């Protein structure tokens, strides 16, 4: 709308400028006279005022109705005064209309708003990009087994849809048939495709890769993960931070300041030169210069770019004030399980007998545990896969309830189990294995033994909740920023101490019940610290709510967590570092923009009032409008530089 009105007004303004007496005098030319030529300037000026000025007058009426004066009232006041004065000058001898100043003022105001809206729209493009991820139609499987193409809006829970290779998943659901890999980067930020099989969850908008999937729909429409993300992004863009509220108040103050300066200017000039047209020109110029375009754009544009940048990096902002507060954090408290650790058992150490190597032991252990779904079995198989070790072929597998498992490998009977199995078989361990088990026990790790022929312990595996590789980097980066790191866990003192020492955590709280976590956060706050709590957003809800900044991490397909101020989609502690860096960079841009916007007014208002008139320096309304628009452009460019900020950790 602003773009269309700008171009129409600009075209109509050209004849006004060309036929203006002032412009003719400056450039030394004379326009040809013909019947009606004297009406070109006023008639076209009226059209420009009515067409180009309407948006400002309309928005000013809203500000007046709400008793919240701002830039629209200033703009409307300026162009109305200019218009009324110019029209009056047609009938008052000795006065000089400045229709050309009026139309150029409106043109520049329209241009500034067009640029502002265009910049904000581009900054908010994350919502458009998210919306593009959703397909318009889906292939629904009928009762006969055939497929029919239907609009996504017609899908209901329980429907089964066919998702072909390269197609987008139309709704949240569960894989009923088929195996494939799915690109979930739009949800998790992780570029690696995720393997899917029957029972796996899939999310609307993600892209199927190489195999066909039949998906049973569990959520549709506004209930889907993607819809939730879009809702959070939209809410965050509409919400206001403390800095933005300050800018809004400053615009209101500027309205009264502008009226005050205009009044003082009028009185001073009347006293100095009497009531002349120059007095009104000074008043109009003051009002033009005071228009807070740049001030109104300074913070909202940074907020919009901040929100879209955060969303592109897997950070969903529910509370803008919390995002702004993140820059001041001096303590970050992590929940251990599922946040700093993977929340699943993994092999963290292997000790073998003298004539055995780790690869051989892992090969046999993975083979024995090949068909078990027990978490220890999965941990051993995962360790073998990560090391590229093939599972040994086994036979005569047998589960020994409460003790472990038994199988035959290459003719040897092999047992795999814990200390109870060692005790039942009454087998001695070597000194190396005893020492290994004692050290693992001191760290609250589980030890599993590999036994051959019921007589020889050939290897021991230590299992524990695996620490994420990213946790080391995250804590190191936080320390580099001067931020203390604390850890909460319901695990034992030994486990908490071991994890804390390995990661270099400053302090930890062990054996903490979920309902007690918020008291630990409160204890740190009582020391005068600004605390962020990072947890899974479910059992950490009280602590997330209590913290100055609640960060729900690893929400995955549950983006509607109500307890967190900020949601990190991926299970990556490094995103906390990126969040703080983005908060610092955004606030810095807000400050820079506020300096540009208010600093411009501080300098320009006295010049517009005529403080340097004794030495021949006066700002005309049109020149004032040009300077004002330049300030707006600078603020817009500076805000867009936020897109290039380095968030790498």
TrEMBL record:
It comes from the Archaea. It holds the Pfam family Hydrolase. Residues 170-200 are annotated as: Disordered. This is Copper-translocating P-type ATPase. Its main location: membrane. The chain crosses the membrane at residues 38-60, 72-92, 98-115, 250-271, 283-305, 594-613, 619-639. The keyword rRNA-binding does not apply. The keyword Transmembrane helix applies. GO terms for biological process: copper ion homeostasis.
């Amino acid at each position: 709308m602003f773009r269309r009105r700008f171009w129409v007004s600009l075209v109509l303004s050209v004849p006004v400028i060309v036929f203006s007496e002032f412009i003719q005098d400056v450039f030394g030319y004379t326009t040809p006279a013909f019947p009606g030529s004297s009406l070109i300037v006023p008639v076209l000026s009226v059209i420009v005022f009515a067409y180009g000025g309407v948006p400002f007058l309309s928005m000013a009426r809203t500000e007046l109705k709400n008793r919240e004066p701002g830039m629209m009232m200033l703009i409307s006041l300026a162009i109305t005064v200019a218009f009324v004065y110019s029209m009056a000058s047609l009938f008052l001898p000795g006065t000089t209309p400045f229709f050309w100043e009026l139309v150029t003022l409106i043109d520049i105001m329209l241009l500034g708003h067009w640029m502002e809206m265009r910049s904000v729209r581009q900054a908010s493009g994350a919502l458009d990009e998210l919306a593009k991820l959703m397909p318009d139609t889906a292939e629904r499987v009928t009762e006969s087994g055939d497929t029919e193409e239907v609009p996504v809006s017609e899908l209901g829970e329980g429907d089964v849809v066919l998702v072909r290779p390269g197609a987008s998943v139309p709704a949240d659901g569960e894989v009923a048939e088929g195996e494939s890999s799915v690109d979930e980067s739009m949800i998790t930020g992780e570029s690696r495709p995720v393997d899917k099989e029957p029972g796996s969850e899939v999310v609307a908008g993600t892209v199927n890769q190489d195999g066909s999937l039949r998906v049973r729909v569990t959520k549709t429409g506004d209930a889907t993960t993607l819809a939730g993300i879009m809702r959070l992004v939209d809410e965050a863009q509409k919400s206001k931070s403390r800095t933005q509220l300050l800018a809004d108040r400053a615009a209101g103050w500027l309205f009264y300041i502008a009226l005050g300066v205009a009044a003082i200017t009028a009185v001073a000039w009347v006293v100095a030169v009497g009531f002349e047209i120059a007095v009104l020109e000074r008043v109009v110029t003051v009002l033009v210069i005071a228009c807070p375009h740049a001030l109104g754009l300074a913070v909202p544009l940074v907020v919009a770019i901040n929100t879209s940048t955060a969303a592109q990096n897997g950070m969903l902002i529910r509370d803008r004030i919390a995002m702004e507060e993140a820059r001041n954090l001096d303590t970050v408290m992590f929940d251990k399980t599922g946040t700093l650790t993977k929340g699943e058992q993994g092999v963290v150490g292997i000790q073998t007998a003298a004539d055995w190597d780790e690869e051989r032991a892992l090969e046999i252990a993975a083979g024995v545990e090949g068909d078990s779904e027990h978490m220890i079995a999965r941990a051993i198989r995962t360790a073998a896969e990560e090391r590229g070790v093939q599972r040994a072929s086994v036979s005569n597998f047998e589960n020994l309830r409460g003790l472990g498992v038994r199988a035959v490998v290459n003719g040897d009977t092999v047992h795999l189990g814990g200390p109870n199995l060692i005790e039942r078989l009454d087998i001695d361990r070597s000194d190396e294995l005893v020492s290994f088990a004692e050290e693992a026990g001191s760290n609250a790790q589980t030890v599993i033994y590999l036994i051959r022929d019921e007589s020889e312990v050939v290897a021991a595996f230590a299992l524990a909740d695996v620490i994420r590789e990213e946790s080391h980097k995250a804590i190191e980066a936080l320390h580099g920023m001067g931020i203390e790191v604390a850890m909460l866990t319901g695990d034992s003192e030994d486990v908490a101490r071991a994890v804390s020492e390995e990661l270099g955590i400053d302090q930890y709280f062990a054996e903490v019940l979920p309902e007690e976590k918020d008291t630990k956060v409160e204890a740190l706050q009582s020391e005068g610290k600004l605390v962020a709590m990072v947890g899974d957003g479910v059992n950490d809800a009280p602590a997330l709510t209590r913290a100055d900044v609640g960060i729900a991490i690893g929400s995955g397909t549950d983006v509607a967590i109500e307890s967190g101020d900020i949601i990190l989609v991926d299970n990556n502690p490094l995103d906390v570092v990126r969040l703080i860096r983005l908060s610092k960079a955004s606030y810095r841009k807000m400050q820079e923009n506020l300096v540009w916007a208010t600093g411009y007014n501080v300098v320009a208002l006295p010049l517009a009032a005529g403080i340097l008139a004794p030495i021949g320096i006066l700002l005309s309304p049109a020149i004032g409008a040009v300077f004002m628009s330049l300030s707006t452009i600078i603020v817009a460019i500076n805000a867009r530089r936020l897109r290039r900020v380095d968030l790498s950790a």
